Amino acid sequence: MSSFWSAWIIVLTLATLVALIWLLRWNMKNYTHIEEGQEMDHEFDGIVELNNPLPKWWTYLFWACFVWGFLYLALFPGLGNFSGLLDWKSSNQDVQSLEESRQAMEEAHEKGMIVEYDRAVRAAEEKYGPIFEAFAEQPVEELAKNEDALDVGQRLFLQNCAQCHGSNAMGGQGFPNLTDDDWLYGGEPNDIKTSLLQGRRGNMAPFGEQFSDKEINELANYVASLSGRDRDPDLIEAGKANFAVCSACHGADGKGNQQLGAPNLTDDVWLYGGSINKIEETIRYGRSGVMPAWKDILGEDKIHVISAYVYSLSNDE
What we know:
- By secondary structure, the chain is mainly alpha-helical.
- The chain contains 14 helices and six strands.
- It is elongated, with a radius of gyration of 33 Å.
- The two termini are 58 Å apart.
- This is Cbb3-type cytochrome c oxidase subunit.
């Protein structure tokens, strides 16, 4: 905040408090020709106003609020750039990355500053860290049968993963369903954990410039036929000739490649929609999906618990 706006806020805040104090003092004195307790010169709907002072308890409450207000402004940040006598703040401001946040946390600790967010993080780590460490010692398959661990994993999932995969983990267009057994990068515990730790970046190249609209339609019909759908035999045969370009990732049989994250085209699971129009759109413009890496955000112990929860969703026997 610039010095001008800082000064503007300070002056405006203090001037408002002073004006309120003056208003309270003005209401405590009788500035009229009418004695206290006597009727005023006007009435409304048969109700006559009396010239009475403010109740004592009300007045005392006002003064207490003023004292608290000045005390709060002196101790805590709130007056422009003034940081307060306690050197307290709710969080480290203006950080742009996790690394900057960690550096700011360390600097604040070294300087003896009171940062409420940092205190909350340290308190949570002290309280819950041993619990996550104990969970991390168990294999994912075993942890997936631990009800306590699954409750914790579900909460972490709802807080961090549900924005894309949904609160029921069934995903949506462009976001995989985690409750079935169809996995782009593999559904084994280590595969799931790797996806969470390192993130995933799926990319299918666009072929709109390589194929004509007619060829794209033929190829879309052939791809649709791989999952057992009834399509025009002539379109299927014509599209099969161009599928060689796709087989580099999806395989000659169209069953995909989990090493590349290339989807299996022979089932009836479609990440971006399985209609002919949607398949044509995918071929013409390509697809690009990104799942962020969570290692630096949540840490390995918490990811271990989330992995167990996600694994349990499609392995609930």
